[in-house]
Amino acid sequence: MYSVDVKPKRIAILGATGSVGRQALEIIAGSDRLSACALSAGANWELLAEQARRFRPQAVAVADEGAAQSLSEALPGGVELLAGADAAAELVRKVRPDMVLTAMVGAAGLAPTLAAIESGADLAVANKESLVMAGAVIMPAAREAGIHVLPVDSEHSAIFQCLQGRPAEQVRKIVITASGGPFRTWEPERVATATLEEVLAHPTWQMGPKVTIDSATLMNKALEVVEAHWLFGLGADRIEVLIHPESLVHGLVEFSDGSILAQIGSTSMATPIAFALHYPQRAPEPPAPLDLGSVGELHLEAVDTKRFGAIELGFEVLRRGGTAGAVVNAANEAAVSAFADGRLAFGRIVNIVREVLNKVAVNPEVTARTILSADAEARRQAETLIAGERSAPGDAAPLP
Hints:
By secondary structure, the protein is an alpha/beta fold. The chain folds into 2 domains: 143 residues, NAD(P)-binding Rossmann-like Domain (Rossmann fold), CATH 3.40.50.720; 205 residues, Rna Polymerase Sigma Factor, Chain: A. It has 16 helices and 12 strands. Helix 2 runs parallel beside helix 3 and helix 14 runs antiparallel to helix 15. The protein is globular.
């Protein structure tokens, strides 16, 4: 049993204006154990200013330097402003919080994640891309620093909770669940030409655009397979993905004796966010309670890899090792951006990522330099392929 802290836990929220960041702030607002000491955003300075007036953090950061002047005029007195591409990492170093919630989207979250470790802050990780790119750097550094790395993705939070107090040698496998997104029952030919509006109409989760697009391709599960490897130290042969359209069973752990533990919760990110922010305690009240009696049936089924070919890319990253994660993440970010901009057909996103992985040499050495180099090369190759597209689905390039 843990005693209640005398003073609130000081939390820096990176990506405060996004979906996870906004929900985290609502949890903080209702708690006497938590406080928001630092907030960062990309370009949404209006909402960031509103959050700063409400929570009065020590400092805020905005990546878009063009928004800095407007933000400075809207901030309350006593709140320091940092601006620029490196502002989030600088914010962490300056404020030195007890915990950093990394809720930024994409590769931009890597530098602030490393800054949090350097500062000795516990990490609540909603930025899965940082672990996909640099898990080989982040996890050893976190262990050396003696900090907690707490998953915020609902699936990894579920597995983390099921594993508490149980030795790794007793784990036979872990199971990550996937809703199947809006196209679980569509014919592949129809999926290939899906519109942005159709892609963003997720049946069970309310998320930001990039995460929602990844959920529709199931690329989010490919990334989560890699993330799970780094968080829990398990090989590809001990990680499985199952489709679960109700999105209530978030993760399962099967042990050596065949027993399976599952974590069940509502389709709200508030529950895993609250778990991470309060750890090692639990929130005193459920932020998003679930009425199990009203659920009815729960379904689990194998992934149709013909419909969702992205899944294999996660396991391929683990097989290739090195900078393969950085390559896949960068290529996916480029392809998703191109689809959102109308420059690429939905059915080509996963194929572009696969083609880039087959083109870019994987460096077995994982350092900040090799990660950034792989990221840049993968984006260059992806943009070259995208530029040659006629927004029509094509055949997948096979993995060797």
